[in-house]
Amino acid sequence: MSEAAEKLILPHIPDLHRIEVYEQHGGYSALRKALGMKPEEVVDEVKKSNLRGRGGACFPTGLKWTFMPKQTTKQKYLCANGDESEPGTFKDRQIFESNPHLFIEGSLIAAYAMGINITYVYVRGEYLKWIKILQGAIDEAYRKGYIGQHVFGTTFSTEMYIHRGAGAYICGEESALMNSIEGYRGYPRVRPPFPAQFGLWGSPTTINNIETLANVPIIIDRGWEWYSKIGAPKHPGPLLYGVSGHVNRPGVYELPTGVLLTDLIYEFAGGISGNKKIKAVIPGGSSTMWLRGEEIEGVRMDADSLKVAGSAIGTGGVMVMDEETDILRVLARITRFYHHESCGQCTPCREGCGWMENILNRFVAGEGTLADVDLLLDVANNIEGNTICALGDAAAWPVQSVIKKFRDEFERRAKRGPSPKKPVHPPHVGALQP
Amino acid sequence: MFSEENIKKIEDLKKRYPTTTALTLPVLWMAQDQFGWISAEVMKYVAELLAVPVGHVLGVVTFYTMFNRKPIGRYHMQVCTNVSCQLRGAEKVLDHVCDRLGVRVGETTKDRRFTVSEVECLGSCGTAPMMQLNDEYHENLSPESLDRLINDLSRG
After folding, report:
1. How far apart are CA B118 and CA A395, in angstroms?
2. Last residue of one domain, picked from the residues A229, A258, A292
3. Does the beta-carbon distance from B84 to A168 stay under 8 Å?
4. CA angle at residue A364 from A359 to A366, to 5 degrees?
5. pLDDT per residue over B106-125, tens digit each?
6. Residue of chain A whose alpha carbon sits nearest to that of B80
């Protein structure tokens, strides 16, 4: 796995964000090709490619597109999800920066395939720099006639607007994202009804991740057969892996799905700083289950392999912790994140995340007890599966997995004796905002 | 209260959405850009402009962390301490910033030049530790680079 695979999403081409450069390298030819096909043929192509969503859930993209009603009098919408707030995830930002037109072209093909003429690109509020780059690219595409009325002289007309978020992790959840576009608090909605039936303003809506949409022109351009042979057969394609933490060369690496986790860490990200051993790896963003350092040998980075390994590919955000890491402190920080980001609709998540944070802070301060380990697990188990959206699960999974895999760590650090009465705060407790 | 330019922008935005409620976030962004923070008066103004209840605007402002509900310093230092940054020394970065400026997290210096906040993951994990300074990202921070930055900003 030493030779670099062809870079399809982030090729090393200078100034690729400029439309002329993008066109010189074949840009927008996939859109032209798609517009020469019937919409259902485009959907079929994506379906057969086995492209699966890159936002974390790995749902088959083509299948999702078929949920959109063909005959409807209602306006249909596409939402491109660029909220990118899962800790450890920084890939969409790379697409906006280096290859925004690939994403735009993919969105246009998706819109055509589903008969959609309005796309909202939801980008997290902090990404102002990348919003400006993307807006520049959208403006260029409008000027060239790729977006707007009668694209390539066909009957296909479509608009594309950026909607800027304002600091809320939950808005990356698809139904919360729709509420945020509608101008409300980012509260997830109860499903059913699903977005394809009742989405934005009650109209049929499809929500796709930025990276997912960036894969679409590649599939149309090279054909589903070629694409489906890249990487893991059941979860094919190029994937943007974000490697962070205690590695020598953190960054985004584009590689096929199914790459060995050890190759990703040692070969591409340059191994562990100071040649230390690995204590733990979070393979797919903060919501995914942890792996112990001894467990990563032979683990491949695709949806099915990671499922077998007891975790998930998530957003492909690999976080590496060396042997000296205070993992309970890390877990306490992750849990504090979910507590802060819980929208507050569901009691198990709103209250439970805070309780988990308090218990973990006791361990960080050396005040946790053996009984606290069981209490912590009990709280996590009662959040999981009992909430409207997956944020509750995402908060519970890391806690459950660390208790399962590092119970020795809890036990070693537990104080013998009764629990303290008052909550214990970590050194950095303070208002997250002024 | 809005500039002519912003009023025009709002009219353009109305064409993008089927309801004016959908303009809540974009218009609050304009308000924050123009006024620096979102006061009760600004919320009332935005509500009138969009013909939505003030309670709706208040609900939105209090939900999204990027809307400042009180005035902040000229330089808003927002230090990420989430996992990837934490693993690369973000807690020390935050301590260093607070020590240098003589404030605690969430506070503004007396000269109203700096506000320090602790924030959640900003999607910059490959260049940790990092912070957002007003609208810009400052990445791969070290005590030395922080000192240089704070010195520059203290003079400017």
Report:
1. 20
2. A229
3. no
4. 95
5. 999 999 999 999 999 999 99
6. A432
